[in-house]
Structure formats: C-alpha cells, structure tokens
Amino acid sequence: GEDDDPQPWRIVAVERLSSVDGLHRLHLRTDQQFNAQDLSIRSIDFEIRLPAGQVFTADTIDGATALVLIGDGTMRFSPAPREERGQVRIFAGSESLDAPFTTAMIRMSPFDFKSMVADTMLVPAANVDTRLLRRAQQVFDAEIGKSFSLDLSDLSRDTWSLLPQPGDFVAEVRTRRYETLTYARSTTEPEDVSLFQRSRKRNISVYASEQKLAERGRFYNEDDLVDYDILDYEVDSTFTPAREWLDGRTRLKLRVRAFAMPAVTLKLNEALTVNSVTSDEFGRLLFLRVKNQSSIVINLPGPVPQGTELTLHLTYQGRVPRQGINDDTVAPSADQQGTGRQREFEEEMPLIQPEANWLFSSRAQWYPQGNVTDFATATLRITVPSEFTVVGSGVQAMDSPLVVDALPNGTGGRALFTFVAAQPVRYLSMVVSRMNRADAATVALDIVPPQTPVVSTNGKPAAGKATTPLVPPVGSRNTLPVTVDANRRQEGRGRDSMETIAEIVRLYASLVGDVPYDALNVAMIEDDLPGGHAPGYMAVINNPLPTSPFTWKNDPAAFPNFPEFFLAHELAHQWFGQAVGWKNYHEQWLSEGLSQYLAALYARERRGDSAFRDLLRQFRRFSHDSTEEGPISLGYRLGHIRNESRVFRALVYNKGAAVLHMLRRFVGDDAFFAGLRRYYRENRFKKAGTSDLQQAIEAESGQDLERFFERWVFDNGIPRVRYSTSRTGDDVVVRLDQGPEIYDIPVTVTIQRGDGTVLEEVLRLTEPTLEARISVPGPIRAIELNQDYGSLAIFERSR
Q1: Would you say 359 and 325 are in contact if contact means Cβ atoms under 8 Å apart?
Q2: Integer Cα distance of 659 and 594 in angstroms
Q3: Are 540 and 359 in contact (CB under 8 A)?
Q4: 3: which residues sit within 8 A by CB, 6+ positions away?
Q5: Which whole number is the average pLDDT over 271-292?
C-alpha cells in the first residue's frame, strides 16, 4: 500500500480448510421457570418422574435441548435382557433399579422434546425464583460438559455443545444412594442403551434395544460401524523415562468406508497435546478435542467419498501414565487389598524394588488410533536413552538399535529402535525398561500346510505363482525367530525360558497349522504380581521378586504347580486374540478361553494327564463359584461393577476354557481340532465371533451346536444331572436325567476293572433322559462320573 495508508496489510484471498456444523453455545434460560406437574419422561427401559418441582431449560432456535429438574423425584431403570437384569441385581440388589433424586439434567434433541414432554407437565411459573435458578445453574454448569461437548478452549472460553440426534437421550441423575447415574440412549451405537455410574466409572448395564436388534441382528462386528479402515502406520516416538514424557509423530494411511466422510475421529490419550494435523491431500486441518473421551475430531474440507485413501500426519506430546497389565495379572489376596492394609504393606516394602518398566499398549492410547482396534501394517521407531531397551510390535530391524548423540567416550546418547510389522496387527505396543538380550534362537516347526485353497486376508483366493503375497499363506512358515530380552535379575530366567518357549510354539503351531507372525519377541520384566500381556509379535511377562509383599495363590489364574502357565497363556494370544481378533467385547472369551485352553494342553504335554486334570478341576471350581455373576458373553463387564477382576478371570478365562474342553469332548478330538484350524484359517488377520467358531466346528463335525453354544456361552446356568449305574450281564447301564432346561453335556464314565485297568467312555447327553449300555466283561471295582472334571454340570447319584 501507500506510505500513508493506515492499514498496513489486507486479506486478498481466503480458502476454507474445514468447518464445524451444529455447534451451540448453550445457556440456561434466566427468564423462564416451569413448575412440574406429574412430569414423566421415558426412554427405553427408563423413566424419570417428578410429581412436583421446578424445571429450567436451555433452548435452541428449534426448541429445548436441556432440562434441569429440581425436586423430589424418582428414576426407574428396568432392563429387558435377562443378563442385564442380573447385572442390575449385582449393583442394586434387585433386577430393577429405583432411585430417589433431588436434581437431574436431561439432554435430548429439540425435535424429540414435544413428543417426550407433554405441555401439561410443564406449567410456566409466574416469577423466576433466583435461589432455585442459582441451584439449577450449578447443576447445568457441572453436567453440560459431560456429553455432546467439544473442547474449544484454544478458540473460546465458553462451553460448546453438539445437539443430540433425534432418538438420542441422556439423563444425568443425582441420586441419593448411588451418586450420579447416567442413563443414555445412543442410536448410533451397536448397543444403544446404557446405565453408567460416573463416580466409580462403572458400566452397570449396556445392551441393544429390541429396535436395534431388529436393525442389526443379534451379533455384530465393531468394524462394521466405523467410517474408515486404517491400512498402515508409521509411528515415531521419543520417550524419556525420567520424565515419563512422550514426543510423537504418526503418519497413518486410511481408506474411507462410509458413503461420505466429513470428519475423522481418532483415539488419543487426553494427556497428550496435539500440535498439528495435516494430510497429504488437504494440507493443514482443523481438529477438535472431545471432552472426557480421549478423542480427537479432525474436520475435512468437505465430505470425502467412499474408497478414497487419505494420509494423515499428527504431532503430539505429553506425559502419558504407564499402562498396567490388568486383565492378565492376578489379584492380591483379599486381606491385602484394603487401603489400610495396603499402606501397611507399602511401609514394610523391602529395599529390593522391581526394575522400572513402561508398557504402552492399546489402553494407553499412546499414538493416534481408530475408535476400535484395526488390523494394519506398521513401522515403529522408538528413541530412548541409550541405557534402556525397547521391545515393540514387529520384527526388529537389523541395524536396530542405532545409537545417536553419544559422547566422545561412547557413553550417554540415545538409542533408536525400529520394528516393522509386515503382517497386520490389531494395535501397536512397546515396553521400555533396562534390559539385556538374554537369548535368541530360530525355532524349527512341524507344520503341514492345509490341503484346502489358501484364502488371503481380503477373503479372495490367493493369487498364483506370479504374485508374491504380502502376507505369507497359512502353513507356509516352518521356522520362527525368537528373542528374549530381560531385566538384569531376570536374565537367567530368560535364558532358561527359551526351551519352554520353543516347546510351546511348536505345540501351538502343530495344533493350529500356522504361526501368524514373522518373529516373536519376549520381554521378561519385574513386577509385584505375576501376569503378562501379548500384542502381535511380542509378549511381556511379569516376574515377581521373592520379596514381593503379595500372595495370589487363590486367584483363578494362578497355578502354583505349573509355573510356565502365564508364559503358555500369553504366547497363545499370538494366534487367538491377535491374529484372530474378537468382533466385540462379548467375544472376549474366544481370546482368553482359547489361550487358557491351549496353555492347559501344553501343561498336559509337559507335565502329563494329572496336571491337565488338576487344571480342569480348577477351571470347574472357579466357574461354579462365580457363575451367578453372568454368562461369559459379558466379557470385561463380569466383575466390573464391584471391581472384582477375579470374576472376569474365573469366567472369561477358566469357564471359557472349560466350555472349549466340553465342546471337544462333545464332538470328538478330530472334529474339534479340524474345526479350530478352520476357524483360524478363515479368520486370520480378521475379527471373529462365537458364531464363526460354531460354524467351523459344525462344518467339521456335522453336528448342530446351536443349543450347546446358547446354553454354555450366552447363559450362566449350571445344569444338575442325576444318575444311576447298574450291571446287567457284561453291560454297565448308566442312566442320566436332567431338566427342566436341556443342555448338551459330554459325560465321562470311568470304570475301574477288577484287574486294575481303567476304561473311560464319553456319553453325549442331549435329551431329558439318556440310558446307555457299556460292555465291560469281567469284575468291576467302581463306576464314577466326571472324574476327569471334563464337564461343568453337577452330578448327583440317584438314591
């Protein structure tokens, strides 16, 4: 401009990068108060009643979207599904929850307001009571940010909200007995009804309504609900253990699955600050944080059509709390869990502390990832101080670690570890600690490739010889490189474990007919409690020191007579849980139950039938002790309400393994293991569910297993079987009676002959009554049922 121009610069062009629609800055109305007259608002299996009281609203141009209720009211929640009524009973003592309240806030779509709230229920008050208004404002300010809220703190100090979609509904109810309970109906979720206790972060009930079931059917795959498929990751992170500080850069490549995708939602730990988001296609992008959800919403310039591939780049930093090994760790004895007792143990802690380690896996959300686990290839580059070692998801590069920034004398500096996951993994993990290489070996396998045509991961027949598939066909590997890194005090254990690892891998590979990943990295670290974690390509094993103050002998996952059990369980996850994922949390038992059962099979291989029978007995005992908590199909929610992780392990781990053993006894060894191989082969690097296992076993056995799975997986009953035995000539006659519900039960009859030999016969009980004859010439000493603990049924001899 001219020298005398008062404006030194002007905007000459504007390009819109992205936009956010539907944002509202909500305020409680200060000029309007309503008197409630028999106010009743209903949603699915839920009702909130306020016979008399006061109501304040927050409105949009389309109508009210938030209501604050003040007065003596009641809420009632009565879920329809039987298993959910059982969870409410655990929480509240009865199958319906009735709770008085004094204040509540409700969010709904303005378009639903008139249909849900009759005009006669809200009568305008003559004047606004300022005292009540202040109280309502306090409730509004405390609750408005908990749902439908975006974090725009970089742009505005106000609270900004999205409007609930028609059909969506949230009630934050401050009850007298249970503190704040949150009821939600979310039409976009596969399980659209939930009840949540905020103070303890407990999901009391989560399920699909009848309307939702009619839309999607009984079973669902969480992958069907996402807008995009992640294809590949490049994660570059620098981690400083002294500060627990993470600096990260991630490039992720994705393909749009939705018809048109206006935004990308990713999971990223809310402790991490996002510095920038760009894409190769659109450049710099606007991103927003979702409050209280560790989510980031990346707005695109416009809806991106189905099939489009995008490459996103994110940079971020922050202090990320380390992730504990929760599910696969035993719990201390009950007398060591109380706050006072815990403090006493801490005061008595010995001078020897476990070597510090930092595990970052799926729950830590330490890198940007999808809303659900998503099979993708990846490259990890992790930089740490040179005295630390990293074990990560993938094959460690030949030149890894690469030491950089070292001092002239060779000390100090940093080490760059690189891992490449050429086979798809569900999520990425790493563990950082002071470790040394304890051992390394190449394990020879005995795998017979399947005779059926090989199917690639996209479900199409594999290409001919002219094409080299990125993922090796099932059964094509006959060796597996294995490395063991260990804390200094665990190096001897690490070296000794190599032979055990080789035995385990050989057994599982022979049973399944494949090893899914190019390498296996095992980290032997220290902790106060035993346990493990097993992402793709790697396994982390907790080894308690002799000075650990805890005991865990009564935990469902503790097997003192089989110290290799944790290792055997974790290695099984390479096949089930990783290479074959679960479609949703209801199918968690397929991962944990199969891993538990394979570990039991290794116990028999290593320590004989007696050890195997002892494990089955423990599976059975803990299954019976916890069966009232619900069916194994509830997954992580078993024991969740009371924070009893033992219940989860008793049922998802042990009962899951016991059900698999019953299935094997019911269909026979050949059909069971052929079905297991089919299940793996058809679902490798995909997610599978109970119905997929059922179909695979049915295909190999020729049997209808609908009732078997319905009773043992989706119900929590334990049948009682009355039996009698008699002798007619050379025949042993066994009569079995069950009812009123009919289960499919394999029943092992053990007959001790007079010469000391033992005969075992498996009967298939599928009707109310079964009478079977077993030919046993000669004298008989005893006839017993279920002496192998192979059935979960309770057997009672008829008098």
Answers
A1: yes
A2: 10
A3: yes
A4: none
A5: 91
Tokens matching residue 68: 């604050």
| Distance separating alpha carbons of residues 602 and 571, to the nearest angstrom | 11
What is the enclosing helix (H) or strand (E) of 770?
A: strand 769-775
pLDDT tens-digit series, residues 517-564:
999 999 999 988 888 999 999 999 999 988 888 877 788 888 888 889
Q: What is the pLDDT of residue 352?
A: 80
Instruction: Give phi and psi for 503, each to the nearest 5.
Output: -60, -45
Query: 123's torsion region: left (phi>0), alpha (psi -120 to 50) or beta?
Result: beta
Which whole number is the average pLDDT over 105-124?
Answer: 94
pLDDT at 552: 78
**Beta-sheet strand order (sheet of 758-765):** 758-765, 745-753, 780-785
Query: Is residue 237 within 8 Å of residue 247, measured between CB atoms?
Result: yes
Determine the Cα–Cα distance for residues 613 and 567; give it in Å rounded to an integer. 19
Give the integer Cα–Cα distance in Å for 780 and 788.
Answer: 19
Q: At what angle do helices 669-683 and 690-701 cross, to 10 degrees?
A: 130
Q: Tell me whether the omega of the peptide bond preceding residue 563 falls within 30 degrees of 0, making it cis.
A: no
The beta strand positions in 347-458, using DSSP E, are: 357-360, 376-385, 389-392, 395-396, 402-404, 414-425, 430-433, 436-444
> Worst-scoring range by mean pLDDT, 150-154, 320-324, 450-454, 569-573?
450-454
Q: Are strands 580-582 and 686-688 parallel, antiparallel or unpaired?
A: parallel
Q: How confident is the model at residue 158 (pLDDT cuts 50, 70, 90)?
A: low
Strand runs labelled E in 192-332: 193-197, 202-207, 228-240, 245-256, 260-267, 272-279, 283-284, 287-290, 295-305, 309-319
Omega before residue 740 within 30° of 0, cis? yes
Are 503 and 605 spatial neighbours (Cβ–Cβ below 8 Å)? yes
Entry pTM: 0.91
Residue type, 537: Y
| Residue 460: predicted pLDDT | 44
Residue 535 CA to residue 423 CA, distance in Å, equals 13
Candidates 116, 110, 82; CA nearest to 96 is 82
What is the rounded CA–CA span in Å between residue 168 and residue 130? 31
Which residues lie below 8 Å from residue 635, measured CB to CB, with a gap of 6+?
Answer: 585, 586, 587, 588, 589, 652
List C-alpha distances in Å: 160 to 151, 270, 277. Answer: 7, 18, 22
Supply the mean pLDDT for the chain: 90
Query: What pLDDT, on the 0 to 100 scale, is given for residue 303?
Result: 93
Q: Is residue 632 within 8 Å of 663, Cβ to Cβ?
A: no
Q: Using one digit for the tens of pLDDT, what is the confidence trace for 218-233?
A: 899 999 989 999 999 9
Q: Give Cα 473 to chain centroid, integer Å.
A: 28
d(CA 692, CA 675): 10
pLDDT at 323 over 80: no
Closest CA to 485 of 540, 535, 444: 540
Residue 150 DSSP label: E
Dihedral sign for Cα 201, 205, 211, 212, please.
Answer: positive
Q: Comparing C-alpha atoms, which of 314, 313, 325, 316 is closest to residue 238?
A: 316
**How far is residue 241's CA from residue 127's CA, in Å, rounded to a whole number?**
60
Q: Is the pLDDT of residue 269 over 80?
A: yes
Q: Note the residue count of the chain.
A: 799
Q: Determine the pLDDT at residue 469.
A: 47
Of the candidates 507, 543, 506, the residue with the CA atom closest to the CA atom of residue 523 = 543
Residues contacting residue 564 through CB under 8 Å, at least 6 positions apart = 500, 504, 602, 603, 606
Q: For residue 483, is pLDDT > 60?
A: yes
Mean pLDDT of 607-626: 95
**Tell me, what's the pLDDT at 529?**
86
- Whole-angstrom Cα Rg for the chain: 30
Q: Three-state SS for 87?
A: helix
Q: Look at residue 75 and give its three-state secondary structure.
A: strand
Q: Which of 546, 464, 564 is nearest to 507 (CA)?
A: 564
